[in-house]
From TrEMBL:
Protein name (record): Type III pantothenate kinase
Species: Polynucleobacter asymbioticus (strain DSM 18221 / CIP 109841 / QLW-P1DMWA-1) (Polynucleobacter necessarius subsp. asymbioticus)
Class of the enzyme per the UniProt entry, highest EC level: transferase
Lineage summary: Bacteria, Pseudomonadati, Pseudomonadota, Betaproteobacteria, Burkholderiales
Protein family (similarity comment): Belongs to the type III pantothenate kinase family.
Keyword Repeat: no
Originating gene: coaX
MF-aspect GO terms: ATP binding; pantothenate kinase activity
Recorded catalytic activity of this chain's protein: (R)-pantothenate + ATP = (R)-4'-phosphopantothenate + ADP + H(+)
Domain of life: Bacteria
Residue positions binding substrate: Y109, G116, A117, D118, R119, T193
PANTHER family to which the protein is assigned, alphabetical: TYPE III PANTOTHENATE KINASE
Length: 270
């Protein structure tokens, strides 16, 4: 049995998972990963955190047979990550980039090398799970919304500030707005500053999803499935449910869609 180790280096968090060759990226069961974890991406910059993490990984993870990763957090983050594993110098680190190829998927991005590697990985992960017209939402530092057609074409997508960034930018760039705190605000227009900010940012995220569904329909690729991943996915899923909109579509939370895509890509590029 082989072991594959996967890293998704995001702007806020570094996520990893190890998976055994007895499993397939198309498997949907919950217990997919043999090992998984996440830490703040910033901790890769601190020598103490790095030493701690290296020690933890060395004690818990057996040596993998292959390593795949994507990184949207800059070249230093890659160097810092690799430096955690001096003992695995003989393993090739395979980096998925925006212009990496994957059989059955083609992007319409004008310059695919500029496409976020995590977005391509999530698209590949979604393709492994279903061959229908799919919206892929990664609600992390930024929220990305991508359309993948049943024909395997990535029609492009949108990048908007993630929920946290939206809220923080209001606090940072105004005199009167606080950093809002999510509570149990009633639905509808906010009747306090806090509720107006939380509700407004939620509306921007949900509105973008609704608009993406409309645009996909206009492109004759009506959305059949929606995969939702990222640190803000639970909040967004719960707001969608609370609002009772988008009822005709199942929004499926899919933790680790980027990791799943990396895994599928690694298997395709042994
Ligand atoms: N425990 C947490 N740690 C960090 N961010 C969190 C946490 N819970 C929710 N978040 C939200 O999730 C975002 C990070 O999500 P994630 O999918 O890991 O992003 P990225 O891939 O950009 O690193 C943060 O910007 C924050 O808004
Ligand atoms: C849009 C992103 C910042 C999202 O990063 P994340 O929120 O996952 O950390 C990242 O995918 C990226 O840097 N993309 C490059 C530009 C593009 O995709 O067009």
């Amino acid at each position: 049995m082989s072991l594959y180790l996967l890293f998704d280096v995001g702007n806020t968090r570094l996520k990893w998972a190890a998976v055994e060759s007895s499993q397939k990226p198309s498997d949907q069961q919950k217990k997919l990963w043999a090992y998984s974890g996440s830490i703040s991406s910033k901790s890769l910059q601190s020598p103490e955190h790095k030493a701690e993490l290296a020690d933890y990984i060395a004690k818990t993870l057996p040596k993998p047979d292959a390593i795949g990763f994507s990184c949207v957090a800059g070249a230093d983050a890659i160097d810092n990550l690799k430096s955690l594993f001096p003992q695995w110098g003989d393993i090739e680190w395979k980096q998925l980039r925006g212009d990496s190829s994957y059989e059955g998927i083609r992007t319409l991005y004008q310059d695919p090398s500029k496409l976020g590697a995590d977005r391509l990985a999530a698209v590949i992960g979604a393709r492994a799970l279903s061959k229908s017209n799919t919206l892929i939402i990664n609600a992390g530092t930024a929220t990305t919304i991508d359309l993948l057609g049943s024909n395997g074409l990535h029609y492009g997508g949108w990048i908007l500030p993630g929920l946290g960034l939206m809220q923080k930018s209001l606090e940072a760039n105004t005199a009167q707005l606080p950093l809002a705190v999510r509570g149990d605000a009633p639905l509808g227009f906010g009747r306090s500053t806090n509720d107006a900010i939380i509700g407004g940012c939620d509306a921007a995220q949900l509105g973008a999803i609704q608009f993406a569904i409309d645009v996909a329909k206009d492109l004759n690729h009506p959305v059949e499935r929606i995969w939702l991943d990222g640190g803000n996915s639970k909040v967004i899923a719960s707001e969608i449910n609370r609002l009772g909109k988008l009822k005709s579509l199942t929004i499926e939370p899919s933790e680790g869609l980027v990791l799943r895509g990396l895994w599928a890509w690694l298997l395709n590029n042994p």
